[in-house]
Design goal:
Layout (H helix, E strand, L loop, with lengths): L1 E9 L8 H9 L8 E5 H8 L2 E3 L7 H22 L4 H8 L3 H15 L1 H4 L17 E3 L4 H19 L4 E13 L2 E3 L15 H9 L3 E9 L6 H15 L7 H8 L8 H5 L3 E10 L15
Parallel strand pairs: 2-5
Antiparallel strand pairs: 1-8, 2-8, 3-4, 5-6, 5-7
Helix pairs in contact: 3-4, 3-5
Length: 295
């Protein structure tokens, strides 16, 4: 099978957005039976209001240690080079913000545990990219994500008359070595060993394993992990990263401080939270041509 994909531009999904209705509105003219409908977890979590304002979080001594010595020294000088992080990323880690970083680590410790907090960013799926001020989004739990994927699939069938597989994805990497797939964060996809925190990240990057976006949940329980990873990877290529891959890139884009990005700034950037991935069977050159708009 050859996979082709198309992303759909939408307004920024602020908290309170009816994301199911918006997703179906975006794809209703393009969706076909058998398609994979891929939706960004970050966009869903923002629409659901699964947010924490880290400016209101008081950091513990352990969180301060993780923000200072662990992130600045261990990640900036030891684990970062071992994981072959880019030089500009190492510079950022070596000057990791102490107060804001400690609050972020405290949220990770409280909600996702020690292994997740050992990560240098996106701890357990907690992420501040494409969010304003000092807000971060909390990830969907595996069962919660499965329920949302199933609901969207059922709504697509009821309202659009299309039988599709819905896949919720996150940009955090899953690392693969043949049939073995490991991920720092939790996932409901059977065959991916998730929740390994920094262990999976260091192994995956130090040994140059194949890294792809993480499929969080699917409306099809039997979806094979390799196919789910292929779909997630292709969808990410067409969906992009909105205002930036991380908080540094986002703040740099707007020329402001890390906690100074506003809702209005985010709304000025094109966002593509939804994509369709379609499977084309390899029969003949004529059959291999993607439908109009998919590539």
């Amino acid at each position: 099978m050859r996979l082709v994909a198309k992303a759909f531009k939408s307004h920024y999904w602020r908290p309170g957005t009816d994301f199911v209705r918006e997703a179906l509105r975006l794809v209703k003219r393009t969706l076909r039976n058998g398609d994979f409908l891929v939706i960004s977890e970050k966009a869903i979590c923002t629409a659901l209001g699964k947010l924490v304002d880290e400016a209101e979080v008081e950091a513990s001594s352990l969180a301060r240690f993780l923000a200072s010595f662990w992130t600045r020294r261990i990640w900036g000088h030891l684990l970062g080079p071992l994981c072959k992080l880019r030089p500009e990323t190492l510079v950022k880690l070596r000057s990791y913000p102490l107060e804001e970083g400690a609050s972020h680590k405290q949220v990770a410790l409280r909600l996702k545990g020690f292994l997740a907090a050992l990560m240098w960013g996106s701890e357990g799926g907690i992420d501040g990219s494409n969010l304003p001020f000092s807000l971060v989004s909390l990830p969907l739990g595996p069962e919660e994500a499965k329920g949302i994927a199933s609901e969207i699939s059922e709504r697509a069938r009821a309202e659009l008359g299309k039988r599709v597989v819905v896949l919720i994805v996150d940009s955090d990497r899953t690392y693969s070595l043949g049939p073995l797939h490991i991920s720092p964060r939790e996932t409901a996809i059977k065959g991916i060993i998730g929740g390994l925190g920094a262990i999976a990240y260091v192994i995956g990057n130090a040994f140059r394993l194949k890294g792809r976006p993480t499929p969080i949940a699917s409306s099809e329980p039997a979806l094979a992990p390799e196919l789910a990873l292929r779909i997630a990877s292709l969808a990410e290529k067409v969906m992009g990263h909105g205002a930036g891959r991380d908080v540094w890139e986002m703040a740099s884009r707007f020329g402001v401080g890390l906690a100074e990005v506003s809702w209005e700034m985010l709304e000025s950037v094109p966002h593509k939270p939804v994509a369709i991935v379609r499977a084309l069977r390899r029969r003949s050159p004529r059959h291999m041509r993607p439908p109009q708009g998919l590539s």
